[in-house]
Amino acid sequence: MTRWNTRHIPDQTGRSAVVTGANSGIGYITARELARRGARVVLACRSASRGKAALDRLRTEVPAAKAEFRPLDLADLSSVRDFAATLDGFTGDRLDLLVNNAGVMALPYRTTADGFEMQFGTNHLGHFALTGLLLPRLLATPGARVVSVSSMLHALADLDFDDLNGERSYGRWIAYGRSKSANLLFVHELARRLAAAGSPLVAAASHPGYAATNLQTAGARMEGRNSAERVIELGNRLIAQPAEGGALGTLCAATAPHMRPDSFVGPRNGLRGAPAQSFRAPWTKQDANGERLWAASEQLTGVHYDFSAAHPSG
Questions:
Q1: Catalytic positions, written as ranges
Q2: What is the pLDDT of residues 40-51, one digit of tens each?
Q3: The model's pTM
């Protein structure tokens, strides 16, 4: 993969995309660059005020943008279902691209509206449900892709299938690493099931390396840990790449021609730089774990994937 950048994004005219967490950071940059290349983009955000502000900013930066804000709270499965059920007015029956970007990082222990540990529930289960509910549109759209944003910090921890909700033991960074491992294991299992169904729909993953966004400071800010917040902000200024650089892996996975299913794309050196295929922990490619996580996710969310509408490739 050459030194890929936004100039390599193919024309997206006529294509439709949903980007979760598009109000700031990597999600916003992803939505903006897709719109700049002609895609119709849905900014799916939890906060209405921040989502609408992001839409106004996008339309200022890309005056010809075809974009719309839609409310989506991935920590509330009823919100996920409402979002999926009301998407028709903008994208119709087709959906070319779903970018599962939104997430939370290293929060103190808390639960979602449905009682799941917040990081696992938001970063994985919310996106698992969303992808399943939008799957018929994706399967019906030639050339469609699903891109899930993980992290190199997935390497912190494998999943604990006996304690997915962190009820017996909780560490904020270990829980974050497990949620990001779940993202990669989900992509692996989705790609495997799509291949078995003969579908050309591509499921891939990306990571931003170390990118300066507000994600890193959220947990410290919530707890009033001012010194920790200042240290993180200093690291963002001195070491991290800007959000524009962090979004390159996602944009590459979403638009580069001939992207392989189950790819994991991020900065070439792990922290920053042009996109390349990245290291991933071996447990994120184990079929048995993928099947186990899939079964647990269907049970917890009540969302069951239907691959019967898959159009065989070739």
A1: 176
A2: 999 999 999 999
A3: 0.91
